[in-house]
């Protein structure tokens, strides 16, 4: 620190002409010198460092393209770079006072902290402590396995995917659920599955639907002659889920029995909601013989 006692003006020493203290010229000279000394201690501006630096003195270094603020170290041995001498203001500097007051007012009178954060457009991180945020950021430090890093940050598999089209990405929680469409574009889950007394169904986001039913036909008789075959009574199958109006699903049917004769299932009157079917076989089969029937239809729900 500069020795400011060197610039002290003497006001009391008697002079030969009867005056006391130093002459006005001497006093003002010391005053000007003191100002120069203080200016050097507080800040120096130039393209070269000050010739007689002191601890903690500041120097605006203009020798670089963007002037740099430097401060003298405590032991007076080096210049420490602080940062740009002229720092741009943040985005708030460009906002109007009314806008800033409005944003500040979003917190006024709100007892619900979560609502206040939401009004200001802040995410959940705004409620986390600094230690917590630093810990979360540190979850990536030194982790060589990207999968582990994603898991530490609570990210799902969607974090791996690039955006597809303009829609939202699907995650594990949106694969199974209720499928839906709007104008032919999927808006719900990827796969929907259900069942009732009429069988089971699976719907897909693209509009495809599969319905099926496994029946125990042991109590039925397939004994009515039809040419060289024998058939059972005509039966009605209401689908477990309807197909789109105006469409006709494709049908598949099969029957099983312990013997090896030719057998099958045929359908007629196929509609979007139901169909009639009957079983047929090459050997007359009375009720009580163990046998099963499988019915399946494939079409579109949308």
CATH class of the largest domain: Mainly Beta
Mean pLDDT: 79
Structural class: alpha+beta
State the helical fraction: 10-25%
The number of E-state strands comes to: 16
Shape: rod-shaped
User: If helices are DSSP runs of H or I spanning 4 or more residues, what is the number of helices?
Assistant: 5
Would you identify the CATH architecture of the largest domain? Sandwich
Strand content: 25-35%
* Biggest sheet architecture: 5 strands, antiparallel
* Run of helices and strands: HEEEEHHHHEEEEEEEEEEEE
Q: Alpha-carbon distance between the termini?
A: 85 Å
Largest beta sheet: what is the strand line-up? Answer: 7-8-9-16-13
The third-level CATH topology of the largest domain is: Immunoglobulin-like
**C-alpha-based Rg, rounded:** 45 Å
- Poorly predicted runs are none
- Give the count of structural domains: 3
Topology:
Blueprint (H helix, E strand, L loop, with lengths): L23 H19 E4 L11 E4 L6 E5 L6 E6 L12 H9 L7 H7 L10 H9 L7 H7 L28 E2 L2 E2 L4 E6 L2 E6 L3 E9 L7 E3 L2 E3 L3 E4 L11 E8 L5 E6 L5 E8 L9 E10 L2
Parallel strand pairs: 1-2
Antiparallel strand pairs: 2-3, 3-4, 5-6, 7-8, 8-9, 9-16, 10-11, 11-15, 12-15, 13-16, 14-15
Give a verbal description of the structure:
The longest helix has 19 residues, at 24-42. The protein has helices at 24-42, 97-105, 113-119, 130-138, 146-152; strands at residues 43-46, 58-61, 68-72, 79-84, 181-182, 185-186, 191-196, 199-204, 208-216, 224-226, 229-231, 235-238, 250-257, 263-268, 274-281, 291-300. The protein has a five-stranded antiparallel beta sheet with strand order 7-8-9-16-13, with no helix packed on it. Strands 10, 11, 12, 14 and 15 form a five-stranded antiparallel beta sheet that branches. A four-stranded mixed beta sheet has the order 1-2-3-4. It is α+β, with helices and mostly antiparallel strands and 302 residues long.
